[in-house]
Amino acid sequence: MAKHTLRTFSRLSWIVIGALLMMIVWNSSHGKSLYSPQAWVAHGLLHTAWVRTQASGRQVKPWPWANTYPLARLSIPQLNFERVILARASEGVSSYALGHLDSSAIPGELGNSILSVHPDTDLRILQNLHVGDLLILESLRSGLWRYKVSDIQVVEKSNMQLLTPIMNRRLTLISCYSCSSESDPWRYVIVAEEVERVG
């Protein structure tokens, strides 16, 4: 019995080591540095929820206690950036996803879709965007769309001009700036306008 237990433990150890090696290889091929274990698990859970939501058409939570679910996925190939967009940004979302503001248009639908960007994990990457860069949105409801960055601004928190409803498809990504405290009055805003539907 002891030999059987030892053999099982040895097999499990090799599985764990193999999984860790696969994680290292995957991370090395998708960026310059390794994700932390917490980030790696979060990205895995978010990706799984996105795939299951696509396959089932149901609202699949990324983890059991979540009060949110995937709506779309945003990718920026030139920055090697890909994030799931989660519903209910006003209630707080994962540091490893973008959050959709409920009062704005659903991503991929007509209107101004407002997305919150986490300052610690994603803003540093998105600050490398320039006017004219392309973003790709994969929407559960309306398919695949290309958007082009039309404007990048730092505005006061009280400035609501970029949040107004419109009649075309727009993505407005917002993060605090410089994020030194909760009362920081500045917001970093990236505006991207619909270019075309893909496929």
Provide keyphrases for this structure.
199 residues, alpha+beta, Sortase, Chain: A, globular
Could you characterize the architecture of this molecule?
The structure is a single chain. Strands 1-2-3-4-7-8-6-5 form an 8-stranded mixed barrel. It is of the alpha+beta class. A hairpin with a 4-residue loop joins β1 and β2. 26% of the residues are buried. The chain has 2 domains: 34 residues; 130 residues, Sortase (Sortase, Chain: A), CATH 2.40.260. The chain is built from 3 helices and 8 strands. The radius of gyration is 19 Å and the shape is globular.
Domain count: 2
Estimated share of beta-strand residues: 25-35%
Question: What is the string of SSEs from the N terminus onward?
Answer: HHEEEEHEEEE
Major β-sheet annotation: 8 strands, mixed, barrel
Low-confidence stretches: 16-21, 24-34
* Helical stretch tally: 3
Secondary structure: number of strands? 8
Strand order of the largest sheet: 1-2-3-4-7-8-6-5
Would you identify the CATH H-level superfamily of the largest domain?
A: Sortase
What do the pLDDT scores average to? 82
Any idea what the radius of gyration is?
A: 19 Å
Q: Using the coordinates above, name the CATH class of the largest domain.
A: Mainly Beta
Residues in helices, as a percent range: 25-40%
Q: Within the CATH hierarchy, at the fold level, what is the topology of the largest domain? A: Sortase, Chain: A
Structural shape: globular
